[in-house]
Design goal:
Rossmann fold, about 300 residues, alpha/beta, 9 helices, 7-stranded parallel β-sheet, about 40% helix, globular
């Protein structure tokens, strides 16, 4: 297979960073696009940078290229497009909504401007990336688009309304793009991680990647936590699959693709959030009486 050229929109940290690195591990050239650089921070106010991500991509075996891009600014997205001669994989992972989400607050009592900011950061960004970058793939007659979301169905789990609208909207975007792009040889799909242990999540739990299991004392479900590299390996498997078009328009998960492709997380385990969720929340099993290792 020829070397892949990929854009990961929202590659600064979390799933986006790990996806970029795992694409690098299969030899891809990865444009790591995001807002936070070593020279300027984004409103997320986190220490991770796109330069760090690009270096990790190169260290993994690929070629990482950091591109500062605010995906709500069309000129930035157009500048990113001007750097590309071709595009094989587009990963739409922009989110940037956590500081504005008011979980637990009735929508009518929440800050409407913050709600609109969540929608703009989570939906407008994806639309601009698709509109600007898809013509490259259409011209080639091939490509893979991965819309990163949260959840693989439309069940409402009590999260803030703007959060739910964004994540469900991303799934519907993938469904619509899958229908429109199949005739052009392009596969579009949505993909969710399970219980993700991102940098921010680890920090919030007061643990590190080395001792993350200690956080199960606070939240028993964290026993199923997966590193961001789990979804990264799912994307890498999709990118190498010559029959990836069979997934077009679908909402997939890291755990379902783990079962399909056989990859593991960075610790060598196979965290199955889907089976855990079905047993604990669906069948009513007590999570304190089951062995988490049986789900990994």
């Amino acid at each position: 297979m020829a070397e892949l050229v990929a854009v990961v929109a929202g590659a600064t940290r979390g799933c986006g960073r790990a996806i970029a690195v795992e694409l690098g591990a299969i030899g891809a050239t990865v444009y790591a696009a995001g807002r936070t650089t070593r020279a300027s921070a984004s409103p997320m106010n986190r220490p991770e940078t796109i330069e760090d991500t690009a270096e990790l991509v190169t260290k993994a075996g690929g070629h990482g290229i950091a591109v500062r891009c605010d995906f709500t600014v069309q000129a930035d997205v157009a500048d990113l497009r001007s750097r590309l001669d071709r595009l094989d994989v587009l990963v739409n992972d922009v989110w940037g909504g956590d500081p504005f989400v008011e979980h637990g607050t009735p929508f009518w009592e929440s800050d409407v401007d913050a709600a609109i900011a969540v929608h703009r950061n989570g939906i407008e960004t994806h639309l601009r990336a698709l509109h600007t970058l898809l013509p490259l793939m259409v011209e080639q007659g091939k490509g893979l688009v991965v819309e990163v979301t949260d959840g693989d169905d439309e069940t409402y789990h009590g999260v803030a309304l703007p959060y739910y609208l964004v994540k469900s909207g991303i799934r519907r975007t993938a469904q619509a793009m899958g229908a429109q792009l199949t005739a052009h040889g392009i596969t579009a799909l949505a993909l969710t991680p399970g219980y993700i242990r991102s940098e921010a999540m680890l920090e919030g739990m007061g643990v590190t990647e080395e001792n993350w299991r200690d956080a199960t004392a606070q939240d028993i479900h964290f026993a199923m936590a997966e590193s961001p590299h789990h979804i990264g390996r799912a994307v890498a498997a999709l990118a190498r699959d010559p029959e990836v078009n069979r997934w077009s328009g679908q909402s997939l998960s890291s755990w379902s693709l783990m079962r399909e492709y056989g990859f593991t997380d960075v610790d060598g385990t196979r965290p199955d959030w889907g089976r855990w969720f079905a047993d604990i929340f669906g069948k009513g099993l007590d999570p304190h009486t089951v062995n988490p290792d049986d789900y990994r």
